[in-house]
Amino acid sequence: MKRITVLGATGFIGSAVLKTLARQEIRLRAVARKPAEVPPGPAEVEVVTADLTDRAELAHAVEGSDAVVYLLLGDGGWRAAEEGSAERVNVGVMQDLLDVLGRDDGVRPVVVYGGAASQVGVPQREPLDGSEPDRPETAYDRQKLRAELLLERATAAGRVRGITLRLPTVFGESTPGGGHDRGVVSAMAARALDGQPLTMWHDGTVRRDLVHVDDIAAAVSAALAHPDPLSGRHWLLGAGRGDALGDVFRLISAITSEHTGTPPVEVTSVQAPSHAPVTDFRSVTIDSSAFRAVTGWRPEIPLGEGIHRTIAALARKARP
């Protein structure tokens, strides 16, 4: 049985990946700063708590792994990256991981890294297909790109088989014991449930490629099943729709109204804050046909269903 180690197993995406992989007959190691909940399934699950910025704890956490799924994110997201406090997690842990994964038996472990579609910077065209030059605009995206390049170099040197999955805008409900979605869909759903207006920093025509977290977890599983043809480069994941955020916000308002029996909240445009990155005002649609051709993966959860599930989960959590 393969041993697959998930780093960041209690995060929003990590816990969904853990749930998906637990359905396989594998040895599964769930690593995070706090104990992960063991999901149901035939997998033999080992729970490990560790501070992965400690090189010794990291080495222990990944020892004997056939594959490692790297889904760590520095606390505070892109703002922490701008302040410099997240670089140790976003870059340094990747360097340490590649250093400690070396094995004497000639086996090259697989490393699946959760990158970001935004690493390309301001999109110069639609859709993105992975062939664009990278010109990251934010410190967060520069750090993600540095980690990706470290992985590519280690793969070229024959030390690991590295696969970067550049993720789109991921949304959805959290799994038991997992982290919460801090993205735009959940933020607006929470506002709608609270009866607050949904505000946009633009006229609503800006598009995002939205994919439910369970579909992203399925993509990670598909990557683990096809390591050799995927190894050595990055791959874009997306639904390929390019959903206008104004339409998405109005859908959130309407579905929340159905769920609560209250009138739909207003969707309105407001002045953007000074800290808003330029990428927030550019549309993104993603062509993931290259990854789909290798793995057979495709998003299965329609946008409306995903939003229904997200709102229902947030409403359950808010109940006294």
Automatic annotation (TrEMBL):
Residues 4-238 form the NAD-dependent epimerase/dehydratase domain. SUPFAM superfamilies: NAD(P)-binding Rossmann-fold domains. The lineage of its organism: Bacteria, Bacillati, Actinomycetota, Actinomycetes, Pseudonocardiales. This is Reductase VcaE. One of its GO terms (molecular function) is aldehyde dehydrogenase (NAD+) activity. One of its GO terms (cellular component) is cytoplasm. InterPro entries: Epimerase_deHydtase, NAD(P)-bd_dom_sf, NAD(P)-dependent_oxidoreduct. Gene3D superfamilies: NAD(P)-binding Rossmann-like Domain. It comes from the Bacteria.
